[in-house]
Amino acid sequence: MPAPDRSELRITDPRALRALAHPARQRVITELFSGEVLTATEAGRLCGLTPSAMSYHLRALQKWGIVERGESGDGRERPWRATADGISITPEAHRGAGAATSRLSIHTWFSDLEGDLERLADAVGDGEEHGMTSRGRVWLTDAEEREMRERIIDVVREYRGRTRRDHPEGARPWNVYALVLPAEEPGPGT
What pTM does this model have? Predict the structure, then answer.
């Protein structure tokens, strides 16, 4: 059964987008928005940073309402968690941040994609029958494009809430990339 949907955090402020641009912050956001709850020490270990450096990054994200502190179960270090089940960045935030920051944010966000594609190619080469890539072009009205995005998000939402500590037996982690990108307009007569 899917976890209850808390919400989709919508980043509208360009300053919040700038706060997301650091690679370590994006790495920890990926984990936290996948349902993980991590201490600064655990998050730092994932990102190759000291706990104090990771605490700095987590506090910067907290300032924009992206992450929040949880309660400590044993009185020691308090864990951090996402403030919502999903995160999206609006076009207004990208425009307000400027083209360079917007590009940096997008490229940093998808920096793991190449490694994931390499792992898929290796797995398929080793005979595995899992994973996929798909690319195609569809012609959509603006309303249809919004509907398609929502339907894709709904499918992913069904599986949210599973973590490294809480998942069905036999489950393993998969990175899901859903991209709906504007295509280059074909020239006349094509």
Answer: 0.75
